[in-house]
Each structure stands twice: as C-alpha cells, then as structure tokens.
C-alpha cells in the first residue's frame, strides 16, 4: 500500500511540475505556424484544462499506456522503454556484478593492510576514480585499450566485446565508492567487543573476518543499494553518448530538454517502479544477511 501511494505521489508531483516549466514541447519548431501549433496542442490534448489532462493521463496510465512521444513522431513511450531498457539494464547489471565485488574486496584489503603500500595504492585509486570526470576516464580507456592496444572496440553495441569498455568505465564509480565505504566500516567493526570475544574463543582469522567482520560491516552499505541498482539500470547519459550505446539515458536527458511531457513521465514512472522494487528487495536482504533483522 505504501508503495502504491508513493508511486501516485511521484506521478502527481512530476505531472504538475512539468506543466509549470516555461514554454511548450513545440516551441523549438520555428517553421510551425500558429495554426499548426494550435492543432498539435489540440491533438495531444495540451489545450485542455490541467485537471482534465491529469485525469486523462491517469486513466491511460492505469491501462499501462504511457502515451506517445511529443518529439519522436509515431513513437510510443512504451516502445522506447521496451527497446532501450534491455540495453541499459545489461550494461548496468554488468557494471554492478563487476564493481560491487571488486570494490568490497579492495575495501577489505585496504582495511586489513592498513598503513601499508597496498592500502596507500587503493586509496590513491579511489581518489583518482572519484575526482576524474567519467568522460575523461572513458576517453582514456578508448584511446589506450581500444585504439593503441586494440583489445576492445571503442564504440557501438553489437556483441559482448563491445560492452567491456563501457562496463569497466561505468563500474569505476561503484568500485571506488564501495572500496572507500568498506574500508571505513571494516575499521569501525574491528574495534567492537564481539570481535575481541571471537578472538578469545580461538576462532581462526579467516572465520572472524568472513562471518563476523565482513558480515557486520556490509549491513550499512545495503541501504543505498536499491537506489544505486535503479540508477544503473536506467542507463548513463555520458557513457551511452561516448560509446554510442542505444540505451535509455539519452532519451531521459533529451526529453527533459525538449519538454517531451509524455516521455519524461513514462521514464520517471518506470524508474520509480524499479526503485520501489529494488528497495523492497533490499529490505529482504537485511533479514538474510543478519537474522536479527526481520521484515514483517
């Protein structure tokens, strides 16, 4: 019930905020006469009172119809989502499946080898990945790994080899974030009394790290996992532009800039559903990782 109310609030707020933006979706078409503009506004129902537009949109939405784009002729929002989401989802899932384990491993190594060369190297790597913009990292990967060494294709979206560079580039932010957080949490957990008790019981160092230290350190990191998953699945505008990937990110940005109301609404609602579903799954993960946490 809470999820349904949340989704309704998102739809309502987004609908009215979009209508408050100055201009109209057809204002950039300089060759359009006023008569043609009026006919276009009437065709899409934009000449109706705002409350009537809202009720019409909600009625269509309840039937699973997001409507037609105002910028892309004869292209429905449902079609755009169905054709672009699998691409963005594949890229996001690959980035998460690679970035999260690597980031956690680097954070664990940095915490266990605190003050040593490995810790310093990981910290430098995290700072570089955080400070350097994504488009610069992407350009460097394309130049060295694509053009110079010719290991991977530099652009397009065909077979799996074309996904390696964008996946690596997209996962660097995840790697650096998880490595930094895991290192901090591991060091905090290392000072807890239950670790001293586990050592006093004679448990081995591997068992202590895996079943006590990592398990308790990873719980706070799950909180933002739902939002991160949703963001990854919806695509990255910068990565998709640089690597010429036909994903959802470009539609999201272009539709906002062009006041494509139906496209913006459809993509926002779709992302909201993913966020709500991902957060629900994250809530269930709490109980799996820590039996003391139960979701009723």
How would you characterize this protein structure?
This protein is mainly α and 296 residues long. It has helices at 2-20, 34-43, 50-62, 77-112, 117-131, 134-148, 164-189, 193-200, 205-217, 225-233, 237-242, 249-257, 261-289. Helix 4 crosses helix 7. The protein is globular, with a radius of gyration of 24 Å.
Short overview:
The protein has 13 helices and no strands. With 296 residues, the chain is mainly alpha-helical.
Key features of this structure:
single chain, 296 residues, mainly alpha, 13 helices
Task: Report the helical percentage.
Answer: over 70%
Low-confidence stretches: none
Molecular shape: globular
Give me the strand/helix succession: HHHHHHHHHHHHH
Number of strands: 0
Structure classification: mainly alpha
CA radius of gyration is 24 Å
Q: What proportion strand?
A: under 5%
Spatial separation of the terminal alpha carbons: 14 Å
Number of helices: 13
**Largest sheet data:** none
On the 0 to 100 scale, the average pLDDT is 84
Task: Describe the secondary-structure layout.
Blueprint: H1 2-20, H2 34-43, H3 50-62, H4 77-112, H5 117-131, H6 134-148, H7 164-189, H8 193-200, H9 205-217, H10 225-233, H11 237-242, H12 249-257, H13 261-289
């Amino acid at each position: 019930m809470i999820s349904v109310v949340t989704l309704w609030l998102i739809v309502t707020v987004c609908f009215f905020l979009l209508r408050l933006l100055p201009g109209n979706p057809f204002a950039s078409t300089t060759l359009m006469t006023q008569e043609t503009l009026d006919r276009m506004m009437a065709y899409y129902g934009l000449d109706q009172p705002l409350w009537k537009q809202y009720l019409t949109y909600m009625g269509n939405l309840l039937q699973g119809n997001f409507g037609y784009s105002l910028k892309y002729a004869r292209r429905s929002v449902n079609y755009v989502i169905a054709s672009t989401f699998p691409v963005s989802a594949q890229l996001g899932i690959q980035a998460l499946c690679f970035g999260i384990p690597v980031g956690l491993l680097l954070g664990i190594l940095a915490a266990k080898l605190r003050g040593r060369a490995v810790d310093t190297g990981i910290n430098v790597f995290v700072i570089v990945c955080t400070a350097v913009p994504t488009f610069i990292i992407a350009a460097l990967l394309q130049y060295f790994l694509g053009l110079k060494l010719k290991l991977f294709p530099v652009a397009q979206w065909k077979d799996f080899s074309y996904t390696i560079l964008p996946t690596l580039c997209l996962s660097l932010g995840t790697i650096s974030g998880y490595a930094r957080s895991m290192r901090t949490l591991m060091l905090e957990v290392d000072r807890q009394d239950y670790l001293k008790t586990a050592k006093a019981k004679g448990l081995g160092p591997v068992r202590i790290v895996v079943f006590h230290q990592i398990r308790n350190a990873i719980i706070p990191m799950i909180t933002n996992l739902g939002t991160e998953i949703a963001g990854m699945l919806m695509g990255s505008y910068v990565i998709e532009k640089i690597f010429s990937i036909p994903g959802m990110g470009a539609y999201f940005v272009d539709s906002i800039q062009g006041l494509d109301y139906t496209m913006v609404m459809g993509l926002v609602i779709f992302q909201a559903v993913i966020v709500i579903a991902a957060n629900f799954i994250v809530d269930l993960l709490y109980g799996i990782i820590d039996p003391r946490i139960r979701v009723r």
